[in-house]
Amino acid sequence: MLEGKAMVEDSDMPVKMQMQAMSFASQALDLFDVFDCKSIAGHIKKEFDERYGSGWQCVVGSNFGCFFTHSQGTFIYFQLETLKFLIFKGASTP
After folding, report:
1. CA-to-CA distance for 48 and 76, rounded, in angstroms?
2. What DSSP assignment string belongs to the chain?
3. What pTM, to 2 d.p., does this model score?
4. Are 25 and 18 in contact (CB under 8 A)?
């Protein structure tokens, strides 16, 4: 499990939601091989969609770039073990 190994690099999520994100990531690492980033990301997205409503996005890996717009209060970027985790809910356009 988590055991304090996660390091948040940036976030605008409420602390309780940040803790949930890191817990879901830890669960996914227990369930899937560390090289199966697609399954890890899918597990986290599914958990967030179920708990906080649909529209969540999750990127997992050790080397990736991205550019996105997110809804306020729904973004976290952290590292757990050797992987980086980016979780956010996309912003709706008017």
Report:
1. 12
2. --TT--EEEEE-S-HHHHHHHHHHHHHHHHHS-TT-HHHHHHHHHHHHHHHH-S-EEEEEESS------B-TT--EEEEETTEEEEEEEBPPP-
3. 0.89
4. no
Q: How far apart are CA 42 and CA 63, in angstroms?
A: 18
Which residues, in sequence order, are CB contacts of 34 under 8 Å at separation 6+?
81, 82, 83
How far apart are alpha carbons 67 and 23 in whole angstroms?
Answer: 25
- Please give the chain's pLDDT, 94 residues, in tens: 445 588 999 999 999 999 999 999 999 999 999 999 999 999 999 999 999 999 999 999 998 887 778 888 999 999 998 999 999 998 766 5
